[in-house]
Amino acid sequence: MDPEDSSQDTMLRGSAWMTAGSIFSRILGAIYIIPWMAWMGSYYPAANALFAKGYNIYSLFLIISTAGIPGAISKQISHYNALDQYSTGNKLFKHGLKIMTFMGVIFGAVMYFGAPVLATLFTDGDPRSIPVIKSLAVAVLIIPILSILRGYLQGYSDMAPSAISQFIEQIARVIYMLIATYIIMVVNKGSYINAVVQSTFAAFIGAAVAIGILILALLRRLPKLRRLSRNGQPVADVNENNFTKEIFEQAVPFIILDAGITFFNLYDQSTFNQFMRLFVNATGAQLDNYYSLFGFQANKLIMIIVSLSTAMAVTAVPILSGLYSKGNKEDIEDQISNTLELFFFIMIPASLGMYAVAQPLWTTFYRYDSLGVLMLQFSSVISILLGLFTVLSAVLQALYRNRLAIKYFVYGFIVKVVAQLPMIWLFHEFGPLVATSIGMAVVCWLMLRELHSVYPFDTGRISRRISGIILFSLIMFISVMIVNFIVFHFVGNSDRIISVVVLILEAGLGGVVYGYLVLKTSLADKILGVRVERIRRIFNIR
């Protein structure tokens, strides 16, 4: 919130907070699988598939019900702040809060009462999914309010409350779902469907706790916010109808693009069983297992690293929007370069690292499954494209290139739809992942081309730095794979305790190798700034 901060410092600090919140939340969201799976027992594959199907529908409704307004509010608050119109931004926020409350009620009701129709559309008519969808509808009531509170604070580039609330939200959610599952499955020997229903209802519990955290954060910042408002320009003469129009004009692109990955997942969910039956002779249970491997289990793990790009996207939007409002074209070009370099600096080693540790990672969370490990490895590579799409779409929206961003996404989704059937024919259960990678590659290429044509950022500088990132990531990757080969060659691949130890060892090794190389060559300094010098002194790396 300090106006003297450089955009690079703001980007790094905001990304650090959002990355920490996202990573810890995602890790916690993956760790719960271990006891949850154990308590589900033999029902785990069916419970897992049911959970995944309900959550994909919920994700879509969540994005629609929040209507992209958090991103739009963040973008517009930053816009007004850049013009010293803090009071106008506050008026916009209050109006947006009314809209979000209304949206929560409407879409929560649609999801609850329309659960049978949604089950028919998205779960092949599975009646077990109806109570799951209804339990998630309750969360849709209040999460729009949670989202706009986060968007308001993010508009001031104040990412700490969002990150902290995100982590505490996950803690509350996981505690509730584990207690409920234990009581239903272990104590009462009850139905796994009831356990899944309570596990999904936990989203409401987490959201309620997070709202409380954000309200406290807002109250603590209220004196400073009031001071900024008093010292800034008076409230602009804008009526509520104009505010509504302004919010939704900026929100609609966020709806479509924030839901981009979810649209891809829902298309997989809706077509996988039917398309697979054309080429594979498999039972419904086998198809559920195949879908669960990539659609839920692998997806849950790769979203840990995709959340890194989400953190950068959330941070970049208010920064770029503020620069755009001031008309700083050169600063925008420099900020786009910084954003892309930071993305690849983190995402490439994270992706290759997850590929390298896929075997102990999968065994730790789900028990050893050779097909599952392959799914995770392939998904890890695709995560770079998913993350790049997240960042590029946010950058285009921050720079008011909304329609083009949507058009390019639609092109990519059409490519995905066209490629789906032939890819399943060629690669069977891997087909949806291949089709996703093709569609996302098209979207990312179109978005990069558009960005560079309007804001010709320094591709030579970015290419040189990405080359170094790829080289050092490959050295890290090879080091970890050698350890992986040696350990599992001698001890086998199915012991969960050994896998946990190996996972920690390999993650530490990968971090040390990559960290040493980027510090030794000063690549980290060029991307992260002069503050890295402190780290070099601490570890005596010259």
Automatic annotation (TrEMBL):
The chain crosses the membrane at residues 16-35, 55-74, 95-115, 135-153, 174-195, 201-219, 301-321, 342-362, 374-396, 408-427, 433-448, 469-491, 497-519. It is found in: Cell membrane. Pfam families: Polysacc_synt. Keywords: Cell membrane, Membrane, Transmembrane, Transmembrane helix. Its main location: membrane. One of its GO terms (cellular component) is plasma membrane. It comes from the Bacteria. It is a multi-pass membrane protein. This is Transporter. It comes from Companilactobacillus nuruki.
